[in-house]
Amino acid sequence: MADPLITLDGVTRRFDMPRRFGQPALSMLAVDGVSVRIARGEVVGVVGESGCGKSTLARLVLRLIEPSAGTVTFDGTDLTDLSADKMRLARRRMSMVFQDPYSSLDPRYTLEDVLSEPFRAQGLKVPPGRIDELLTAVGLSNRLAHAYPHQLSGGQRQRVGIARALALSPEFMVLDEPTASLDVSIQAQIIDLLLRLAGERSLTYLFISHDLGLVSYFCDRILVMYFGRIVEVLPGPKAVPRHPYTRALMDSSFVPDPAARRTLVPITGEPPSVHTPPPGCAFAARCIRASDSCRTTRPPLAETPDGAAVACHHPIA
Amino acid sequence: MLLGVDTLSVSIGGAMPLEGIRFDIRKGEIVGIVGESGSGKSLTALAITGLLPLIGGRVSAGSISFEGTDLTKLSPRERRAYNGRRIGFITQNPMTALDPLQRIGEQVDVVSRLHLGLPPHAARARTVELFRQMRIAAPEAIAEAYPHQLSGGMKQRVVIAMALAGEPDLIVADEPTTALDVTVQAQIIHLLAEEVRNRHIALMMITHDMSIVAQLCDRVAVLYAGRVAEVSDVRALFAHPAHPYTRALIDCIPRPDMARGALTGIPGAVPAVADYPSGCRFHPRCPRATDLCRTQVPALVTDGRDSHACHHSLRDTHG
Ligand SMILES: Nc1ncnc2c1ncn2[C@@H]1O[C@H](COP(=O)(O)OP(=O)(O)OP(=O)(O)O)[C@@H](O)[C@H]1O
Ligand SMILES: Nc1ncnc2c1ncn2[C@@H]1O[C@H](COP(=O)(O)OP(=O)(O)OP(=O)(O)O)[C@@H](O)[C@H]1O
Ligand SMILES: [Mg+2]
Ligand SMILES: [Mg+2]
């Protein structure tokens, strides 16, 4: 990748856990040494189970929270050591759509207020006609400018969230499960809208989801996360996974065709405790291919020339 | 026939959010109830489990027959004898189904003590056995735990064990896996299906996920804006849906082999009860709608156990 828009290098975030009386202070690694490059115009997906660190990674990329280690570079500039002023300017070029359209909009503000907010935060005037333009771009009637969030359906609210993220004409957007709380019919509308916007405005997306089927449809490249780490990179939506965890995720996804029924072989167990992370591969305890080395030595993320990468001692051939 | 729902209507206040619902469930069958948010799935479940009074609703027309007894004609007391014992209910938000202050085992024990008349010891043994069937590791220890000590997936399994404890003949499950990770969802669906097959009972599975329907259900009832759009065998439904709404729902599922841009969704949204349109309620969103659809309510045409309500059925063009 000659000139990536985003480069993450060893990005790590540690959270302190609430301290219990008489016990030593505990902390946990929510994101552990993530290195990724994202090209301009690319749509990169992140999948993984609840709690694996997807939202934390999203916040780190936009520097909404500070990394404990590692750097985030945006268009050649290291965001992690920008001053507050410079960071504010950099923010014009990036934005985020949040998971929950119900809690991410303040009930006291009209849509016009919501869509003016990003300008105000930057000390900018709202260009004339811009609110109408934003509402139209996401398929909402401009008559809704004076409506309040409670007057909108979930799908309409999520469109407002997208319009807000588009306000300053960013180059890069992080989409944190933007359709997780919506009906499939509305999810499909929103995904269609996001794809069209990406084409029209040459946007770069980091798209977070726990739905492998959706990510395969939407994304150019897929990062699979487990327990704070990237365990596999799929270079294309049709790439065949080699990590047993990615396979397990696929096998857990239902096929929308009754003629193609299969016996589900769900993986058992749950991810390890964040208090006692295992020394080796975090998936070893649930993995049918695990050997002794998996339990003692953490496999590195090994790249292949085609852009695929897998962190596994015994990848599926 | 285990359960027969016939031209069932539900009223809440002055409104009628559910109208003319008709489908049936046989022993050993898994029947999916699908439709977008607001189509009436949960109200159907509340009518069958007799819980409508809790939300100020009532059955205003039609019948719900359970092994020949019309449940809507029973007194509240007679009705209660069915819940838990004959009909197990897994509510839409199972996280609220557990009392946070009571140990998990006690909450499950009470079901088999009440409905099967088991003494405390036997009830606990049964609880532990159910937990084991639900693949809960260290079931004795879990029985002593409080709900907050369990993960979402574990709590979900406890709630299912609870619904099974009274040995019901019908389980009504309202979106039992929506809030869970796909891996946990797959485990739980697998367990439910096993239970239905092994005990030869019936499951009414409410979901808006057509992939779950495809993999799990024998039959499907598709609801839209409080009415039945279509009831059919699952294979026929996916291969040749009769109702354009069913077709549209199927086309909303992202598939890896789909061309970019092929996934467009259904324009518009499910109307609120106060805004139910005239004629066929789906007509404002339907690509096949004509003047007839705007003015005339399509009849629910029945063919054996299948039915559909559409003036321009897609099956007519199939021949
Ligand atoms: N501010 C915080 N303080 C302490 N721990 C946190 C904080 N934010 C996240 N965590 C922990 O970090 C881990 C990763 O959380 P994160 O929200 O990134 O997961 P996720 O993959 O987005 O999950 P989900 O799919 O449920 O949204 C979790 O164990 C979470 O409890
Ligand atoms: N207590 C109530 N009072 C008035 N209207 C209600 C009540 N409960 C539900 N409704 C209305 O009845 C219709 C059907 O609601 P229901 O909860 O059965 O939908 P659902 O298919 O279960 O949707 P979801 O997928 O969101 O759970 C909706 O229009 C809803 O607004
Ligand atoms: Mg998250
Ligand atoms: Mg419901």
Report on this model:
- The complex is a heterodimer of chains A (317) and B (319).
- In chain A, 27% of the residues lie in helices and 21% in strands.
- With 317 residues, chain A is an alpha/beta fold.
- Chain A has a single domain (6-310), classed as Rossmann fold (3-Layer(aba) Sandwich), CATH 3.40.50.300.
- An 8-stranded mixed sheet of chain A has the order 6-7-8-3-9-10-12-11, sandwiched between helices.
- In chain A, strand 4 (69-74) and strand 5 form a beta hairpin.
- The longest helix of chain A has 18 residues, at 184-201.
- The longest helix of chain B has 18 residues, at 182-199.
- Chain B is globular, with a radius of gyration of 20 Å.
- Classes of the chains: A alpha/beta (317), B alpha/beta (319).
- Chains A and B meet through helix 5, helix 6, helix 7 and helix 8 of A and helix 7, helix 8, helix 9 and helix 10 of B.
Short description:
The complex is a heterodimer of chains A (317) and B (319). Chain A has 317 residues and is an alpha/beta fold.
- Helix vs. strand class of chain B: alpha/beta
Question: Structural class, from secondary structure content of chain A?
Answer: alpha/beta
Strand composition percent of chain B: 15-25%
Shape of chain A: globular
- For the largest beta sheet of chain A, what order do the strands appear in spatially? 6-7-8-3-9-10-12-11
**CATH fold label of chain A:** Rossmann fold
Give Rg of chain B in angstroms: 20 Å
Alpha-carbon distance between the two ends of chain A: 26 Å
CATH C-level category of chain A? Alpha Beta
Q: How confident is the prediction overall: mean pLDDT of chain A?
A: 91
Strand fraction band of chain A? 15-25%
Based on DSSP secondary structure assignment, what is the total number of beta strands of chain A?
A: 12
Which descriptor suits the 3D outline of chain B? globular
Q: How many H/I helical runs of chain A? A: 9
